[in-house]
From TrEMBL:
SUPFAM superfamilies: Ribosomal protein L10-like
UniProt key word Ribonucleoprotein: yes
Keyword Protein biosynthesis: no
Gene3D superfamilies: 3.30.70.1730
Similarity comment text for this entry: Belongs to the universal ribosomal protein uL10 family.
Keywords assigned by UniProt, alphabetized: Ribonucleoprotein, Ribosomal protein
Domain of life: Eukaryota
Name of the protein in its database record: Large ribosomal subunit protein uL10m
GO cellular component, one term: ribonucleoprotein complex
Signal sequence range: none
Pfam families (alphabetical): Ribosomal_L10
Length: 248
């Protein structure tokens, strides 16, 4: 009897306690916030206030000394050369060098030198500093990367473009021709214009034709008037002769 009771109270797997904690189901919790609508989340993120950055307190950065603002003698010399280049040259073209070799650059220099075009190299930082205080300030964005200047005393645009076609590593960015800033497409359009001698010849021929036409018009009216008067006189004389004969 005792053995049977022990088997009932103590199962084979192990002893179980007489009191067990049973978790009953609770009600749904309604205190959590409901998620915002997707459009409302967008609106809240767009209209969220973004405070401006706090300025640095005085004395946090070192002050710029006068020595940093002054140019060294080399920079002054380069600026002086740039000033003479822009004053004496009617064509200043900016070309980007994208990896041409020394032999290719030497060959390009030789081709341009035959047409009176010179190749100049200047540091971009010095060039931008010079252009900032000059009338050519709009050319400053062109000086980025490895740039080269093609200068000539006369605007020889056709010769420059023909020489650049043979060099695949040189790209024309823009030019200043006769104190006029032109883009790369503007330089191509400028090269298609006729030369000054041709334009002057066309102008002279047009003016000569107008003068000759004006002189012909001025001479035609008096001649026509005199011809009409002579015809009228002849008619009057021919009509007066029969009347005289009838009277006699």
């Amino acid at each position: 009897m005792a053995a049977t009771l022990c088997r009932i109270l103590l199962p084979k797997q192990g002893w179980l306690p007489f009191t067990q904690c049973v978790r009953h189901g609770s009600k749904a919790v309604t205190r959590h916030k409901r998620p915002l609508h997707f459009l409302k989340q967008k609106l809240m993120s767009v209209t969220r206030y973004i405070p401006p950055p706090r300025p640095a307190p005085p004395g946090a950065y070192p002050r710029q000394t006068i020595r940093d603002q002054e140019d060294d003698p080399f920079t002054l010399l380069v600026k002086k050369n740039l000033k003479s280049v822009f004053q004496e040259s009617k064509m200043v073209a900016v070309v980007q060098n994208s990896g041409s070799t020394a032999d290719e650059m030497m060959l390009l220099k030789y081709k341009l030198h035959k047409h009176g075009i010179t190749v100049k190299f200047f540091p971009n930082q010095v060039v931008r500093s010079f252009l900032k205080d000059s009338t050519y300030s709009n050319m400053a964005p062109l000086f980025i990367g490895h740039t080269v200047l093609f200068i000539s005393k006369e605007p020889k645009v056709k010769e420059m473009l023909s020489s650049l076609r043979t060099s695949r590593h040189m790209l024309l960015l823009g030019a200043c021709i006769d104190n006029t800033l032109l883009s790369a497409q503007g330089v191509v359009s400028y090269s298609k214009l006729p030369s000054v001698a041709v334009v002057q010849g066309e102008l002279v021929s047009g003016l000569t034709l107008l003068i000759s036409q004006t002189a012909a018009m001025l001479q035609r009216h008096p001649a026509q008037l005199s011809a009409l008067l002579q015809q009228h006189v002849k008619q009057q004389s021919s009509e007066g002769a029969p009347k005289a004969q009838e009277a006699t």
